[in-house]
Amino acid sequence: MPLVVVCTSAVADLSIALTEAHIQGDIRYLLASAPTAEKSRNGPPFNNGIPTSFADMPNVGLVFIAVNPEVESDLTVACEVSRAARTVGLFVVALLAQMTSSRCNRVSESALLREFDSIINLRKWARSRLLACDVIGHLAGGLKVAPPVCTDLADVQAILRGAIVSVGVGEAIGSPNLHEAGTGRDAAELAIRDVGHSQVASATGVIVVIAGNHSVRLSEISRVTHQVGDLVTSDNAAVIPSVHIEPDMRDHLKVMLLTAHRAARSQT
């Protein structure tokens, strides 16, 4: 199922990271620029030369819009693109990237949920562009894996919808002296520490992304998913695995947690 990645002008440098990442899959890249944006920053793989109608993309699974909300013109363009996509029924996820201050807080993030279906918060990471590549690449990979470990798009959307999402990443290297269970356990524990135990415990839903080579087994996927799920305290929280096969990872195993929290509704 195709995905669309839209970058606004202030985060156009993400195109470089995406090009170097060589993300596999049916992905269309677009650059959405304000009328006053500097055109020379456009670069591959983004196509800014052809007007795009989301009505011509009925089968798109997810639309990612990378935006720096501290740049007003950037945020305005991102909201306009989001409205156009949501009007025709597409699911829009905002990647809040390259934050340089704490001006935007939880309240403003909650307000942004009126413009996007979900928000993935990358602002706490200095290397947010690489993290954005991981989010896009691993979810794209998980959605195209064959049964029985394929990820259902409806389950992904159900967890992300109306939620502010934090990301944690952990990676472990296997060895002849380390059982596969230990590799998965270590990677998951690092991801849990990265995002924070309290974030996992209070989550309304978690997508457990497991990235490895073709040697990843169903038993390992199950163990890692349950390791994370056992920490979640909400009875109604959904915890689902998403598997991304990367042959070049050799003995590495990466676990990425997308921990979703429903924003509290403002009282009027």
Characterize the structure shown.
With 268 residues, this protein is of the alpha/beta class. The chain has a nine-stranded mixed sheet with strand order 2-1-3-4-5-6-9-7-8, with helices on both faces. Helices cover 33% and strands 24% of the residues. Helix 1 crosses helix 4 (128-144). It has two domains: 3-144, Rossmann fold (3-Layer(aba) Sandwich); 165-262, Tubulin/FtsZ, C-terminal domain (60s Ribosomal Protein L30, Chain: A). The chain has eight helices and nine strands. It has helices at residues 14-21, 72-87, 106-112, 128-144, 153-160, 180-195, 197-201, 218-229; strands spanning 3-8, 27-32, 62-67, 92-96, 118-121, 163-173, 205-212, 238-245, 252-262. The protein starts with a strand and ends in a 6-residue tail after the last strand.
Secondary-structure blueprint of this entry?
Elements: E1 3-8, H1 14-21, E2 27-32, E3 62-67, H2 72-87, E4 92-96, H3 106-112, E5 118-121, H4 128-144, H5 153-160, E6 163-173, H6 180-195, H7 197-201, E7 205-212, H8 218-229, E8 238-245, E9 252-262
Parallel strand pairs: 1-2, 1-3, 3-4, 4-5, 5-6, 7-8
Antiparallel strand pairs: 6-9, 7-9
Helix pairs in contact: 1-4, 6-8
Distance between the termini: 40 Å
Number of domains: 2
Give average pLDDT, whole number: 79
* CATH-defined fold name of the largest domain: Rossmann fold
Largest sheet: 9 strands, mixed
CATH superfamily of the largest domain: Tubulin/FtsZ, GTPase domain
**Oligomeric form of this entry?**
single chain
The total count of strands amounts to 9
Work out the helix count: 8
Share in helix: 25-40%
CATH structural class of the largest domain: Alpha Beta
Structural class: alpha/beta
Lateral arrangement of strands in the main beta sheet: 2-1-3-4-5-6-9-7-8
Q: Please give the radius of gyration in angstroms.
A: 18 Å
What would you call the shape? Answer: globular
Series of secondary-structure elements, N-terminal to C-terminal: EHEEHEHEHHEHHEHEE
Please report which band the strand proportion falls in: under 5%, 5-15%, 15-25%, 25-35%, 35-45% or over 45%: 15-25%
